[in-house]
């Protein structure tokens, strides 16, 4: 059994090394140097983003504020929500806040995330991505795209776990003012 585990560990390490080498060789002028550590950090951040977006439309969704650092900020257009209570307010779940009416019944609601560009800077990171919301009202209906936009985020590592520090949602093709990868 130990021999199998050792072989698996060596194979995994070899695969990570090949992936790091391939990513380093294929990068453009602005590409980040990829190491095993930055690759793992990127995967952890991408997992956080994926779990966050999979939370939308779920009946028993995780608390969105749990994805954020204590002093984080969520920016939705012109509206700014600061701290965990502010983020809970953005989702209609702040203490003392009147509950929002439930969304209309739908057969399917999915938010897809595409083109994530994640850059790690030690214990901080940035990400930009495209999100698209799809809905099917009734079984057999055509899929409808209801919105699409971009997310520009800053992350921080808190107690060994990546969390959103700033999450900006906007439409259009212009980068946010002052945005740096």
According to CATH, the fold-level topology of the largest domain is Nuclear Transport Factor 2, Chain: A
Structural class: alpha+beta
* SS elements, strand count: 6
Q: Write the H/E string, N to C.
A: HHEEHEEEE
| Sheet having the most strands | 6 strands, mixed
Considering DSSP H and I runs of 4 or more, what fraction of the residues is helical? 25-40%
User: Taking Cα atoms only, what radius of gyration do you get, to the nearest Å?
Assistant: 19 Å
- CATH C-level name of the largest domain: Alpha Beta
> How many individual helices?
3
**Which descriptor suits the 3D outline?**
globular
Distance between the termini: 44 Å
How much of the sequence is in beta strands? 35-45%
| Total discrete domains | 2
Named CATH architecture of the largest domain: Roll
Strand order of the largest sheet: 2-1-6-5-4-3
Unreliable segments (pLDDT under 50, ≥5 consecutive)?
1-5, 7-13, 15-27
- Could you tell me the mean pLDDT? 84
């Amino acid at each position: 059994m130990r021999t199998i585990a050792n072989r698996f560990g060596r194979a995994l390490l070899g695969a990570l090394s090949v992936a790091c080498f391939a990513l380093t060789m294929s990068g453009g002028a602005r590409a980040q140097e990829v190491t095993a550590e930055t690759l793992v950090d990127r995967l952890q951040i991408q997992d956080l983003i994926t779990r966050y977006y999979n939370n939308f439309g779920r009946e028993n969704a995780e608390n969105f504020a749990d994805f954020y650092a204590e002093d984080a900020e969520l920016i939705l257009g012109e509206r700014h929500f600061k701290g965990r209570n502010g983020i809970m307010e953005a989702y209609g779940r702040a203490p003392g806040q009147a509950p929002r009416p439930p969304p209309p019944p739908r057969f399917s609601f999915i938010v897809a995330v595409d083109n994530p560009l994640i850059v790690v800077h030690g214990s901080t990171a940035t990400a930009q991505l495209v999100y698209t919301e799809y809905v099917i009202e009734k079984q057999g209906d055509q899929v409808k795209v209801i919105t699409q936009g971009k997310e520009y985020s800053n992350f921080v590592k808190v107690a060994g776990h990546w969390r959103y520090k700033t999450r900006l949602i906007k439409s259009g093709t212009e980068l946010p003012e002052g945005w740096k990868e």
